[in-house]
Amino acid sequence: MDRPEYNPDILDLVFERVKDKLHYRLLQKGKGIYMSSHEILGIITEEYDEYKAEVRANNAFGQEEELLDIAVGCVFGLASLLSNKMDWL
Question: I need a labelling partner for 19 at 20 to 30 A (CA). Which of 42, 65, 73, 78 fits?
Fold first, then answer.
């Protein structure tokens, strides 16, 4: 079975939504980086667990929000790692 191809316009929308959610989180929680790889893992794991719950509930809106949270955690985690200012890996 062939998979339908993605729409590049939707991908642009996704990147915009991730950027918007990241800015929202920075305003909400501050601009301090994650201080360790364990903190990054904890954030992403928590969001993943929340995503699994939305999948089990068959809640498309909830899945969308949790995927955004996972993406933001990953993007900010990578930014934290690349800052070379984390306390420990």
Answer: 42
| Residue 17 in domain | no
Is 65 part of a structural domain of the chain? yes
Angle between helical axes of 37-56 and 60-82 (0-180°, round to 10): 170
Q: Within 13 Å of residue 58, how many CA atoms lie on the same side as its CB?
A: 0
Question: Which DSSP letter does residue 44 get?
Answer: H
The structural domain count of the chain equals: 1
* The dihedral sign for the CA sequence 68, 31, 44, 57: negative
Q: Does 22 fall in a domain?
A: no
Whats the size of the chain, residue-wise?
A: 89
pLDDT digits (tens, 9 = 90+) for 21-62: 999 999 999 999 999 999 999 999 999 999 999 999 999 999
Residue 79 lies in a domain: yes
